[in-house]
Structures are given as C-alpha cells and as structure tokens.
Specification:
383 residues; TIM Barrel; 33% helix; globular; YqjM-like; NADPH dehydrogenase activity; Aldolase_TIM
Length: 383
C-alpha cells in the first residue's frame, strides 16, 4: 500500500486537513425557527464518522430574511451558538475538521424546498414576519418565473448584510468551526450582485465589474477582520452563469485575483444558479463536469481550488488531484448514498490509511475483521 493524493494531508493556515475529501454543504430543510435539530447532529455526525477530512455544515443564514425556506438554519442570534457547539464537538470527536458555510438567499428567499417543487412559498398567515421575509436583491429582477420580485436593496440594507455576515462569522468562531466558507454562487445574494443578469444598479454597487464585485469584497474584508487569522476562509463561486450576458469564467479569474490578497484561502468552484443550470439544450451532466472550472481558476491565479460536481469514483477523485486540477474534491449526494465513501475509496486505491481514518474503536474492529475473515469468493456462498 502507498500514500495517494486523495489521502494526503493539506495544511491551510493553522488547520491541517487529514485528507482531501470534503463533505460539501447539503441543505437538510429540517431547521425550526432557524435552529438546528437532532437531525443535523445525525447528518453531520455520520459524515464526520465516515472519514471525510473536512465536513461542511449546510448553508447557514446570516439573517432571518436571508432564509431560503422554512427549514433553513441560521446564525443571526447569540442563542444559536450553543446548539452548534454540540455538533462541532461531535465532528471533532470523529476526527474531522468542522466547517460552516454562511449565506444569504437574497432573491431566492421565501421559497418551497426542492422536494416540494421549489417556487414561491404560498402565503402563510401564521408566519408573523411574512412581510419582513420579503426577498431582497440588487435590483427588482425575480430569480425565475413565478417567483417574487425582490425589493431592491437600499444602502442601509447593504450595510446591514455586511454586518450580518461579520457577526455570523464571529459566532461561528465561538461555536468552534475551523473552516468558514462564504456562499457567493448559485444565484444567492452575493452572486446576484456579481452577475449583470441580476444586478442592474446605477450606483456604486452595480454597473461596472468593480462595482458588482464590491459587495463580496466588502463582506470578505469584514469577515476576515473577525474570523481568526489562523483559520482558513473559502469562497464558493458560480464560476460561470452559463448563459449569454452573464458572469463568465474570465470574470471569476479577475475576481479571484482580488480575493486572494484579502485573505481567501480556497475557491470552491461551482457554476449556474442565476438563470437555472448552466446545462442547456437537453444536455446532461457528466462525471466531474465542473472540474475544468477549478482547473482553470487554479492555473490562472495560483489559488487553491476545490472541485465539485458528480465526483463519485475513487479513481476519478484521485486523478483530479494527481493531475493538478484542484487541491480538494467535494462530494455531496455520493456521501448521502455512502457516508463511508472515504474508507471505501482508500481500500479501492490501496491507500495505506485504510481503516485508520475512522475512530480508534471502529478501526480496531474492522482491522480485526479483515485479519480474521477468510478471503472467500462469491461462489463459496452459493448453495
């Protein structure tokens, strides 16, 4: 057995990830009034126990009006810290690095969940802050057909959002997270300011490329000022809108060159979200269909990148890293299917770590099972 790229450690500031496998943020839609539930403890605990080097908590709202659905969780109040500390401690006990993604839904607030068909949430009289939960955005342009038209943000709104991101980052540090990611993709608030398809403002926060980048850069500066210097900061970008007139890969490269000096450590490279999926005309996603974005960003800027999007096979993930396309690989639905994917990948790649990525007790029993179980062929069990 030998050391692979997939199971090599990666140091980011003062944090060392034990391997390059990342459990991507996955919305659970199980929150109640913004608070996490036992479901989140179970979900993140099983991902952490499965051996991923970094496990991200789902997109966590920085203010109430930034919630996408009724089931979103948040970090906009101090009383939300303690329940998260319990989750963080469990993840650390499992040997993983706990991460959190902060976000604001913006134009995509007050919606149904994907399983409910998405679309605008029908009016519910029992939601006391229904009007205050109105979607907001850079301009009065809805995120899609049938969705509510967002309220164009005032200068006061913009300042409040910047302060909300910083306050949530401070609380995330108090909760014990070791990696923080800002969600600036998939059509949510920060992305909507970047894209000319959503941002048609005529002030300092819209119009030119520099003006459209201003909100994200301002948020990064505010967050980096309160997020501990020894802890890494990621930014998720939709590196391309995938539609004419939208945000492009070239725009992303120019933006990343501005982000790195502000203290951003890793670019999480996704795509689409402003006008649906970047896949058009009956196309279907292929394995690793966004890896080329991570590769291009890395080559053009020297940034560490994370690849995401239908990464499902051990050999595929290893090749992405071995060929220098990215520094990390993020999995989502594949980890729902098999939370122990990292252990399975180590066996398939014949990596020396094998069961050692698990907790000491689990590793003991699996090593013992391996040593005492005869190497039988499937035909042995046929009677």
């Amino acid at each position: 057995m030998a050391q692979t790229h997939l199971f090599s450690p990666l140091q980011l500031r003062d944090v060392v990830l034990k391997n390059r496998i990342v459990a991507a943020p996955m919305w659970q839609y199980q929150g109640r009034h913004g608070q996490v539930q036992d479901w989140h403890l179970m979900h993140l605990g099983r991902l952490a126990a499965g051996g991923s080097g970094l496990v991200f908590q789902e997109g966590t709202g920085v203010e109430r009006r930034g919630c996408g659905t009724l089931g979103d969780i948040g970090l906009w109040h101090d009383d939300m810290v303690a329940p998260l500390q319990r989750i963080v401690q469990l993840m650390r006990d499992c040997g993983t690095t706990p991460g959190i993604q902060l976000m604001h839904a913006g134009r995509k607030a007050r919606q149904l969940t994907p399983a409910q068909g998405r679309g605008a949430l029908p009016y519910q009289a029992d939601i006391a802050d229904w009007e205050a939960w109105m979607p907001i955005g850079p301009s009065a342009i809805p995120a899609g057909k049938g969705l509510d038209t967002p309220l164009p943000m005032s200068l006061q709104d913009i300042q409040q959002v910047v302060e909300a991101f910083a306050a949530a980052a401070r609380r995330a540090a108090q909760a014990g997270y070791q990696v923080l990611e800002l969600h600036a993709g998939h059509g949510y608030l920060l992305h909507s300011f970047l894209s000319p398809l959503a941002n048609q403002r005529g002030d300092a926060w819209g119009g030119s490329f520099d003006n459209r980048c201003r909100l994200l850069l301002t948020v990064v500066e505010a967050v980096r000022a309160v997020w501990p210097a020894g802890l890494p900061l990621f930014v998720r970008l939709s590196c391309s809108d995938g539609v004419p007139g939208g945000w492009t890969l070239e725009d992303s490269i120019a933006l990343v060159q501005r982000l790195l000096p502000l203290g951003v450590d890793v670019i999480d490279c996704s795509s689409g979200g402003i006008a649906g999926s970047p896949l058009r005309g009956g196309q279907s996603a292929t394995y690793g269909y966004q890896v080329e974005l991570a590769s291009a960003i890395k080559a053009a800027t020297g940034a560490r990148t994370m690849a995401v999007g239908l990464i499902v096979h051990a050999q595929q993930a290893e090749a992405i890293l071995r060929n220098g396309h990215a520094d990390l690989v993020a999995l989502a639905r594949e980890l729902i299917y098999n939370p122990n994917w990292p252990m399975d990948a180590a066996q398939k790649l014949q990596d020396a770590q094998d069961f050692q990525m698990l907790t000491k007790n689990e590793a003991f029993w699996l090593e013992r099972r391996k040593a005492t179980t005869p190497d039988l062929q499937p035909s042995t069990f046929v009677r």
